[in-house]
Design brief:
The chain is 41% helix and 20% strand. By secondary structure, the chain is an alpha/beta fold.
């Protein structure tokens, strides 16, 4: 049964990354419904290690997500670490925090817009001509960083160290929550996660896309609208859990 006393919020992050957001939502009087839309799986270590060896010595290493940090760590360890003078950069706040936790105290990251566009706007990313740059990422995903840095003259290497799979076991609980009116607001923290949510919705896709949606970055909001999201879409002020929770609260009380 739906909890009619508290607005329900669909939390779509991978299961091991949703606890902090759920606590913030529950503390705000909202009911968190956890439905990881993606499974994050490491790739076989041979190919990523070979790709990184080919990239060395690199002057700039970019991590596209916290998952990229997590799955790149054993790859980096296998080659003996990154060069001491390599600048380490992150697209968002979560990936920057993961890098600091992994032992990289100085992380280049956007101060406001936490996406590829925000990182590319930094002066350091305009000064890449002739530099060797490695991007740690998952399979598929946006190509904006790679394309733009190549156009700016960088020698680009990509290390694909994980893959995303739609968590197909989420279809049944999603259908039940939609049928019972349990969901007042959706969240999405990646393009792949939003697309997987649509896959899980199946015949109820229109119902999903009619609900308010809180996202981490403007580019993700644009993606959702391009995919046909008809409900209100609000981007968090920054890509941190507190600001995403604030965007959810704003949508839930509108």
């Amino acid at each position: 049964m739906a909890d009619t006393r508290r607005p329900g919020v669909l939390v779509t992050r991978p299961a091991d990354q949703s606890q902090a957001l759920c606590r913030l939502l529950e503390d705000a009087g909202l009911a968190a419904h956890v439905l990881p839309t993606l499974r994050i799986e490491p790739l076989d270590g041979t190919a990523p290690v070979g790709a990184l060896r080919a990239a060395l010595p690199c002057q700039l290493a970019i991590f596209i997500s916290a998952n990229a940090v997590r799955h790149a760590r054993p790859v980096i360890a296998a080659v003996g670490g990154l060069p001491a003078d390599c600048t380490v950069a992150a697209v968002g706040a979560a990936s920057a925090a993961a890098l600091r936790d992994a032992g990289f105290p100085r992380v280049l990251a956007p101060a406001r817009r936490f996406d590829s566009e925000g990182l590319l706007a930094l002066p350091e990313l305009h000064q890449v001509a002739g530099r060797r740059v490695v991007i740690f990422r998952g399979q598929e995903g946006r190509r904006l960083l790679a394309q733009t840095l190549t156009a700016r003259g960088a020698t680009l290497h990509e290390v694909v160290c994980y893959r995303r799979r739609t968590a197909t076991d989420g279809a049944a609980p999603l259908a039940a929550w939609l049928a019972g009116g349990a969901l007042a607001v959706l969240t999405a923290t990646s393009r792949a996660g939003y697309d997987a949510l649509l896959d899980l919705a199946g015949a109820r896709r229109a119902a999903v896309q009619a609900l308010p949606l809180a996202v981490l970055a403007p580019a993700l909001a644009d993606h959702a609208r391009a995919r046909g999201h008809a409900g209100p879409v609000l981007s968090a002020a920054t890509a941190c859990d507190a600001d995403l929770a604030a965007a959810v609260r704003q949508l839930a009380t509108a």
